[in-house]
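Quick start: what a row looks like.
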Amino acid sequence: MCSHHDESIEHALLTCLWIVSAWFAHPFSYKVPLQTITSFDRSLFSVSQLEKSSDFATHISFVLWRCWKHRCDCLYKHIPPDPIRIALSSYHAANEFIAATKPGIPIPRQLQRLTQSLPCLSRWIPPPMSLNTDASWFKDSLLCGIAAIARDSNGRLVAGRAIKMMVPSAMAAEALAIREAMHLANTFPLQDIFISSDSQDIINSLRQNSPASDWTATNILSQVEYLLSTRHFN
C-alpha cells in the first residue's frame, strides 16, 4: 500500500506503516516491533503468546484478514489506505464471530418444565459446511491466484484448494474462485453447502440471473449457474 518497500508477506501484514498504524489503532493497541521482525510465522507466534485465549487468537486472525482485504481494495479499487477502518472492521467482525460461536446461555432449572411444555420454536442452525472463496488478480501480468476453503459448522478447516492461472479480468478471477468452490463442494455430496464471496457484482448476477457486468466472466458464470442447478447451495 505504501509503495516504499518490496511486497513481502511480512510487509503486507505487519511492517507497512499503514498496517503498523492499523495494529495500533485496534482496541488491543498492539505495537509492531519493527526492529525484531524476521519472518511472518515467528512474528505471528510471538503475537499469539501475548494472551492464551481463543478470543484473542480470533481477533488476531481477523486483523490479518482485514489487512489483506484492505490492501486488495487499495490496489484494485483505488481507495486510500485507512488504518482506522481496518482496525474497527476487524474488531467488529471478530466480535460477531465470537458471539455467533459461543454456546447458548443455559436455561435455569426453574424454567425447564415450562419450556418443555411449550411448542418448539424454529431456530437458525449453522450450515454443515461453509465454503469461502477469494481471488487476487494482477493487471500487468494477468496472473491470478484463486482459493476456496471449506469449514465445518464449528469453523474447523476441513478442505481447501488454491490455483494459479492467467485470466483477463478481476471479475473472471472471482468467478473462477466460486466455480472452484463448487467443485470442492462436490467432495461433500450429502451435505448442505453455504458459499460466500466478497464479489458483490458476481453475487448480484447469480441472484438476479442477469448477465455479468464484465463480459470476460460470462462463460464462467454460465458454468457456475449450471453447477448451482445440480444441487442445493446457499
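That is the whole record. Strands lie at 129-138, 143-152, 157-166, 193-196. The chain has two domains: 9-101, 129-230.
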